[in-house]
Amino acid sequence: MGLGIVIVSHVGEIVTGLERLLNEVAKDVDITVAGGLEDNGIGTSFEAITAAFEANPQDKLLAFYDLGSAKMNLEMAMEMSEKDIVLYDTALVESCYTAAALIQAGVDFETIDQQLQPLKVK
Prior knowledge:
Blueprint: E1 3-9, H1 12-25, E2 30-35, H2 46-55, E3 60-65, H3 68-80, E4 84-88, H4 92-104, H5 109-116
Parallel strand pairs: 1-2, 1-3, 3-4
Helix pairs in contact: 1-4, 2-3, 4-5
Catalytic activity: dihydroxyacetone + phosphoenolpyruvate = dihydroxyacetone phosphate + pyruvate
Keywords: Transferase
Enzyme class: transferase
């Protein structure tokens, strides 16, 4: 089973910039994003998160977010998805980078999960 990444932020430029960074180290990893609101406002959208889940071709997704309300929308979208989604309460940039590099290197999920644990937000 392949792994993909979904990144959610309150700001569109954050997710597009982070996606650009990750593509430099993990060009073969499927990364989808949901950032900001439709009107370019600050916030997150349940619909955009659901679309990011569906747009990612992988069946197992590692989901990362920036702030608390993004987590709430992610959790609601996870309940509606048939994909296996693992939500990480970890430092956004560092976690996404670590996960993408390890997926690119062919590392298994259990090892990636262990590597992300020290990045948990306390």
